[in-house]
Amino acid sequence: MTAGRVVLWRHGRTAHNANARLQGQSDIPLDDVGTWQAETAAAALASRYRPTRIIASDLVRAHATAKALAERTGLPLETDVRVRERSFGDWEGMTSAEIAERWPEQHAAWVAGREPERVGAETRAEVQTRMVEAVTEQAADLGKDDTLVVVSHGAAINLGLVGLLGLPPEWRGLSGMSNAHWAELQPARPGAGLAWRLEALNVGPVHASSDWNAGPDRPEPTMDEEVRDPA
Predict the structure, then answer these.
(1) What is the pTM (predicted TM-score) of this model?
(2) φ, ψ for residue 10, nearest 5 deg
(3) What's the angle, vertex CA 215, arms to CA 41 and CA 46, rounded to 5?
(4) Residue 231: band (very low, low, confident or very high) from pLDDT cuts 50, 70, 90
(5) Which of 34, 90, 188, 225 could covalently link to 194 via disulfide, CB atoms 3.0 to 4.6 Å apart?
């Protein structure tokens, strides 16, 4: 029986995130802001939860985010390909406007919550199945005070959460996860009819800067700097 806590942590920002391009399984690295987000969030996670295991997607943006926590905690970093992002096939690397222009019918179906056909994308059910299997298996031997951190991706985490809460993949009642933010799951009480309950959603160290998506705040210029560079 599962006893410990599971934290599902989304990777830090990438250039595709910053430019609103669909990433899917394209292997895009963290940008400078994403690296800062990963390190800042890792400090908060390490302090709040004292993780005991770290599992990451094999995609470089998730692996680099997980590495920030592994280095801070001294824990080994394990990889599980089942927690990869959803594949979006031909759409990867494109903006929503570009997709709508080339695949208007499929884009309209996607926006309405239906499956886009003939573009090579994974279905929501396929992603949910592998995410639930991975988290359930990895969490099976957690002790009472253990915390498993799973470093994954926005769509994959959302579908995994929905499945772990016993809901179908078509259910769209959760908000999206911000970069380097996390969700917390704890075992449900006996007799609840579910394995997990959701304790927190889309949590992150938002007070680390005035705009999390823009990176750390710049220090205010000194009077001498303003005189030298009034622009």
Answers:
(1) 0.92
(2) -80, 145
(3) 10
(4) very low
(5) 188
